[in-house]
Amino acid sequence: xxxxxxxxxxxxxxxxxxxxAFDVVMRNHEGRVFSVCLRILGxxxxxxxxxxxxxxxxxxxxxxxxxxxxxxxWIYRIAVNTCYDQLRRAQRRPSASLPDHVDPSDPSxxxxxxxxxxxxxxxxxxxxxxxDFRNAVVLSDLEGLSLPExxxxxxxxxxxxxxxxxxxxxxxxxxxGNQNDQ
Amino acid sequence: MHDHPLDLIAALADGSLSDEAEARALVESCPECxxxxxxxxxxxxxxxxxxxxxxxxxxKAALHRDLWTELRTEPGKSTATPWxxxxxxxxxxxxxxxxxxxxxxxxxxxxxxxxxATTVAEALxxxxxxxxxxxxxxxxxxxxxxxxxxxAAATETTAAEGGAESFALxxxxxxxxxxASQADRSATQGTDRDVEACLSRVGLDEHVVVxxxxxxxxxxxxxxxxxxxxxxxxxxxxxRCEIVYVG
Lengths: 182, 247
What we know:
- The structure holds two protein chains of two kinds.
- By secondary structure, chain A is an all-alpha fold.
- Chain A has helices at residues 7-15, 19-41, 44-61, 71-90, 107-116, 120-127, 131-142, 147-154, 158-175.
- Chain A folds into two domains: 1-94, RNA polymerase sigma factor, region 2, helix turn helix motif (Rna Polymerase Sigma Factor, Chain: A), CATH 1.10.1740.10; 118-182, Winged helix-like DNA-binding domain superfamily/Winged helix DNA-binding domain (Arc Repressor Mutant, subunit A), CATH 1.10.10.10.
- Chain A contains nine helices and no strands.
- Chain A starts with 6 loop residues before the first helix and ends in a 7-residue tail after the last helix.
- The model of chain A is unreliable at 93-107 (pLDDT under 50).
- Chain B has twelve helices and four strands.
- A four-stranded antiparallel sheet of chain B has the order 1-2-3-4, sandwiched between helices.
- The termini of chain B are far apart.
- Mean pLDDT of chain B is 61; it is low at 95-167 and 181-190.
- By secondary structure, chain B is of the alpha+beta class.
- In chain B, helix 1 runs parallel beside helix 3 (31-48) and helix 4 (57-71) packs across helix 5.
- In chain B, strand 3 (234-238) and strand 4 form a beta hairpin.
- The interface between A and B is large, with 59 and 56 residues.
């Protein structure tokens, strides 16, 4: 299954219908894409849907990748945009429901779900942020991406990301009742 | 608050400043800045305490299954499918067939054994205990006996009666084996095992090898080449070229 070549090269092969190349690209990034989607959407099933949609887009639009950013950055940008679309469509608060395909007998399921959990009040506060702020906070403070990377993914200037992260944190603190001036 | 360089304070809080001297002096001299710094740091710490998100095995299987279902109908693309898509498709099919409800049923193995249901081994006209997975096992890793047990269990049950648990275990084992063997696969492919002749001999023409597990023998996971065909999975053991499992 080893497919040689860097990721941009792999995308070129995806364009020609090489599914093994696509498999490698997907396996390299599916974990983080799912993580980003889960943090933004707050629901594992929706995150899985968004992850699937993201990689469908990657497969279909591989030919549009121009190599101006890392492949990962390009993919995460698609993921964030996909989440935006889902949020626009859904327009409802994220929930912590157990998706149908999570098998309670799967020993890895409980651990994985548990590991994804923020403290409930933080989860709720994060879900209550405006999407622009939430996405910036998720990429920067939860996913640990640099500001330039987050800016590239979100398609905005670095200064805008800085501002959104900063204001997002303040809103989080405010919603959590931890600001002295509340 | 807008009179203060808040971006500088935020950058100090998240550690992205190359030179922190100015920001630290500001925080020390300005109470509002200090409070803002505390707030920012607190939120960063809360968020940083969250462990990394991981997908479960079934979530991965569901993702791959759904992607495969979509991609196989993509116009103008190759229909060749990598092994994981087929494996995920098989697993998904098995789960759908038997129903997740029965996964929770604890009486899977015993009840089905007592029910007198026709087993795969019987269908193949070979006693279960003679199946290589059961009889030989393996001594090259902890997972080998588990797989032997799992496969034996799978052959002792039917999909209709409690087979879900076995299939779930089988899939988990297969997925683990497939991942573990990824690195080896490229090295072993193309060696002269006369796989085609073997598949033909056991009536598996127009089938493809979607995975192979290299134990003391080579176990091939074989499926129909036609993605529209029923996704029946067959294990063939080499070099004896015998079918040891169908399901």
